[in-house]
Design brief:
Cytochrome C3, single chain, two-stranded antiparallel ribbon, globular, binds heme C, mainly alpha, 91 residues, 3 helices
Length: 91
């Protein structure tokens, strides 16, 4: 039974992951390209335990997102507008 149920749950989940996620913020929504990030790092880099929503908020987001960008010297770090009010090319 498990073998049949798993793909039915997993397939729509993968489709939803293909889209850029948008985090609402009053100072400008943040587009997060989950699938691109997912292709660069193992899930455990951002998800402790099973990969699923973890109640992201400002504190968690800044620690996670800015933390890695700063450490790796990539992506937006000091400029708020690199994330807030950014628009992914596909919308
Ligand atoms: C690397 C990306 C990134 C950068 C750079 C960044 N933020 Fe954020 N910030 C986020 C994300 C993602 C959230 C949304 C988390 C959530 O969904 O609650 C957020 C949330 C916030 C919120 C809460 C908004 C709300 O509606 O509650 C504030 C305020 C904020 N950031 C201010 C700033 C300021 C000021 C800067 C620049 C000094 C900055 N951020 C730089 C990613 C970033
Ligand atoms: C660079 C960081 C990062 C990596 C790497 C990452 N994720 Fe995520 N993922 C997130 C964030 C941030 C969220 C949104 C969390 C929230 O809303 O609380 C998320 C949400 C999810 C969700 C919830 C569905 C959704 O669309 O919100 C699933 C499922 C998921 N990730 C699976 C994965 C899998 C599987 C991998 C590895 C192949 C992975 N993630 C790698 C950051 C990442
Ligand atoms: C584990 C490391 C890591 C984490 C965590 C991470 N990023 Fe990134 N991010 C990267 C790398 C590497 C790039 C550069 C990709 C490139 O240049 O192609 C990047 C690039 C970006 C960009 C530039 C545009 C793009 O999509 O390439 C944005 C915006 C961004 N990240 C947002 C976020 C947000 C928002 C979060 C937190 C929810 C986050 N990142 C978490 C590693 C990370």
């Amino acid at each position: 039974m498990k073998r049949i149920i798993f793909p039915l749950v997993a397939i729509p989940m993968l489709f939803s992951l293909a889209e850029a996620k948008v985090f609402k913020a009053y100072n400008g929504d943040v587009d997060f390209n989950h699938s691109k990030h997912m292709g660069m790092y193992p899930c455990t880099e951002c998800h402790e335990g099973p990969p699923r929503p973890f109640g992201i908020d400002k504190a968690k987001a800044h620690k996670l997102c800015i933390g890695c960008h700063t450490k790796e010297g990539v992506g937006p770090t000091r400029h708020c507008s690199g994330c807030h009010g950014n628009k992914s090319k596909d919308d």
